[in-house]
Amino acid sequence: MASLIPFDERDGVIWFDGEMVAWRDAKLHLLTHALHYGSAVFEGERCYGGEIFKLSDHSQRLIEGARIIDFEVPYSVEEIDAACRDVIAANKLTDAYVRPIAWRGSEQMGVSAQNNKIHLAIAAWDWGSYFPMEQRLKGLRLAFATYRRPDPATAPCKAKAAGLYMICTIEKHRAERAGFADALMLDYRGRVAECTGANVFFVKDGIIHTPVPDRFLDGITRRTVIGLAKARGYEVVERVIMPEELGDFSECFITGTAAEVTPVSEIGEYRFTPATISEALLKDYMQLVQPGSKAAAE
Q: Which residue among 134, 168, 248, 271 has the highest number of C-beta atoms inside a 10 angstrom radius?
């Protein structure tokens, strides 16, 4: 299976600082600043039928995220868009995952890094649903995370920065070891925030509720799904949600580029039933990104 092939031993090419480089030759030095200090920003994008969904939105967010962590990506949105498309074409991909990443290089080692070159690379590979469709429609089981999303006064929470995902990996591993698919994270104040790599929505009496994205990323998929919900006439309320409220909701689903739209059946002691709204928005999203697909027709 392709998923069992180590990512440094695959065939194909990676766009690396303006050139297509053989996959196995796309390497960094041990003393790359980003490896030691987390000074990198990245995006996760999906390509459906040869088209990368919301590509320019992702490229813009990459540039803005880099500025938040104090460096400039040396390419424009248009240049990044073109490079992403070139990677898809060069690897002869149709349905794929795309990963642009920008980082500080190895010219200077230490907390201070003003003299480091800023690099940009873009890789793409075949990658199916983050969660299998059968599992998706059944609903994911989530644990509660121990770590919390940080106070924006202590971390650049509006950047999709590599270092911010350290606690996400810890919590994803913790949840999987306990038999869950993922973990729901609270913010530093104890309010419901997001999963380790996806935003979260709840349904009560036909109204959709979702946390205000003031301490975590306002996801591109999140915004897309809110638009789809409003187009169907659903009311969407962005508000503070406390964990003790979860027993009041009938449905729950998560959204993200990797997760797409995925219903949830369980968070800790709380239970949900994937139903009309979750299923409708899952189908609407798949129809939007992948017209004519089997998923859209079901």
A: 168
